[in-house]
Amino acid sequence: MKIHIPTPLRAYTDKQETVSVAGATVAEGLDELTKAFPAMRAHLFTPDGKLRSFVNVYLDDEDVRYLPAKEATAVAPEAELTIIPSIAGGCCSLPAAGCCRS
Amino acid sequence: MSLLLSKDLYDELRQHGEETYPHECCGIMLGKGASNGTRVHKLMRAGNTRTDSAHNRYSIAPQELIRAQREARQAGLDIIGFYHSHPDHPAQWSQTDYAEAHWFGCSYVITAVDHGHATTTNSFLLAGTGEEDKRFETQPIAVE
């Protein structure tokens, strides 16, 4: 399968935008990815091995978290995984301590 | 390393904030590294999924990010940052912006929109290597 790497994590894949790995499931693909590029592991997984909450993994156009088998979902050889960190934020509701109001 | 963008793109991202006022706007910047900074080649407007609190929160759907990453790849570009607005708040990063920032090496552009008019626009580079040492660094904006 192909795994598309987001800009901030390419520092750990020798600047490769896309990495091809073996693996019959999403979990196996991610495991192969982190075996090839061990520094990726800490950026994708918590110390107890769970996918970090802000890391989204899509199998083609499906969010893996919402697939029935989640990371155990089977992956066809021609399928594409995309790793995409979340993007969110915003100003504060009140001009109080810690607010962006200077 | 400056954030380089044309006057048209600079005006476009600020105008987006005026259009969505009093809600926050958000968007994705596609570009490429240059010798004197990172150059923005294209802006992709994104919908704000935080319809529950759009006046002070924004979130971009992962599907939009994937579409942007795909378009960038096809154009030989990268996602090099994001922009959003702070309606009636300064163009400074907030604790929420910091907590939700995970795109290391990318620019986070914030435009203050006061009473519907874009005022200050600032850029902050997310520096560090991980959640433990991340920090926002003020990044000069060069409008060309």
What topology does this entry show?
The complex is a heterodimer of chains A (102) and B (144).
Chain A: E1 2-4, E2 18-20, H1 26-36, H2 41-44, E3 55-59, E4 62-63, E5 80-85, E6 87-89
Parallel strand pairs in A: 1-5
Antiparallel strand pairs in A: 1-2, 3-4, 3-5
Chain B: E1 2-5, H1 7-20, E2 26-34, E3 37-46, E4 58-60, H2 62-75, E5 78-87, H3 95-99, E6 107-114, E7 117-127, E8 135-139, E9 141-143
Q: Could you explain how this protein is built, in words?
A:
The complex is a heterodimer of chains A (102) and B (144). Chain A has 102 residues and is of the alpha+beta class. Chain A has one domain (2-85): Roll (Ubiquitin-like (UB roll)), CATH 3.10.20.30. Chain A has helices at residues 26-36, 41-44, and strands at residues 2-4, 18-20, 55-59, 62-63, 80-85, 87-89. Chain A has a five-stranded mixed β-sheet, with helices on one face. The longest helix of chain A is centred in the N-terminal third of the chain and has 11 residues, at 26-36. The model of chain A has no long low-confidence stretch (mean pLDDT 91). In chain B, a hairpin with a 2-residue loop joins strand 2 (26-34) and strand 3. Chain B has helices at residues 7-20, 62-75, 95-99, and strands at 2-5, 26-34, 37-46, 58-60, 78-87, 107-114, 117-127, 135-139, 141-143. Chain B has 144 residues and is an alpha/beta fold. Helix content of chain B is 23%, strand content 44%. Chain B is globular and about 40 Å long. Chain B has one domain (2-143): Cytidine Deaminase, domain 2. Chain B contains three helices and nine strands; from the N terminus they run βαβββαβαββββ. The model of chain B has no long low-confidence stretch (mean pLDDT 94). Strand 6 (87-89) of chain A pairs antiparallel with strand 4 (58-60) of chain B.
